[in-house]
Amino acid sequence: MDLPQHWPLPHAPELRDALLAAYAHGDRRYHDTRHLADVLERLGELRRAGTPFDELPVTLAAWFHDSVYDGERDAEERSAVWAEDGLAGLVDEPVRAEVARLVRLTETHHPAAEDRNGCALSDADLAILAAPAERYADYQRAVRAEFGHVGDDDFRAGRAQVLGGILAKETIFHTAYAREAWEARARANLRRELDQLDVPVVEAG
């Protein structure tokens, strides 16, 4: 994907380039430009499937959602603040506020059922869980590399907790298209990874 061509504010190339530089930082292994491209591609897939969402704020939120990533718990909040600051004067205030709200939502991926923008962004962000086996294996390695400072046992326990929490949801995805197209493969990938971690979890019935 030619990422610059998918930036929705052609009058703000400096902001685009700053975001691209952030995603390209050498310390990133998963939350990088490849991930940004994946999220934008999945949003395009949802749009083509007829999933309703407001394209400008959701696309901008995709660009900003991991703009700050350093392993700290408040990275989504700092990404949202960057969106609030960076978009001031570039878009209408309701769009700016919606972008920041959506970025904050990616901390939990728990949009309300009627939140069509949140559902679309959350599903696009989590679509990696439904990737084909080879791409999912790349994702696993990249996530482990981002937590290279964590010992194996602690990583396995923490990762199992995260994956178990996702599997415990009634549905991983929120849009009708994603549930139909991605849900089953995502659950299969997660169960396979949990088997590799060899840490027992309880999955929702």
Overall mean confidence score, pLDDT: 94
Q: Helical amount among residues, as a percent range? A: 55-70%
Distance between the termini: 38 Å
Shape estimate: globular
CATH class: Mainly Alpha
Largest sheet: none
Structural class designation: mainly alpha
Number of strands: 0
Poorly predicted parts:
none
Helix-strand layout with pairing:
Blueprint: H1 13-23, H2 33-48, H3 55-64, H4 75-86, H5 93-105, H6 116-126, H7 133-146, H8 152-167, H9 176-181, H10 183-197
Helix pairs in contact: 2-6, 3-5, 3-6, 4-5, 8-10
Protein model, in words:
It is a single chain. The chain is mostly helical and 205 residues long. It contains ten helices and no strands. The N and C termini lie far apart (38 Å). The model has no long low-confidence stretch (mean pLDDT 94).
Features:
mainly alpha; Hypothetical protein af1432; globular
Brief digest:
By secondary structure, this protein is mainly α. Helices cover 60% and strands 0% of the residues.
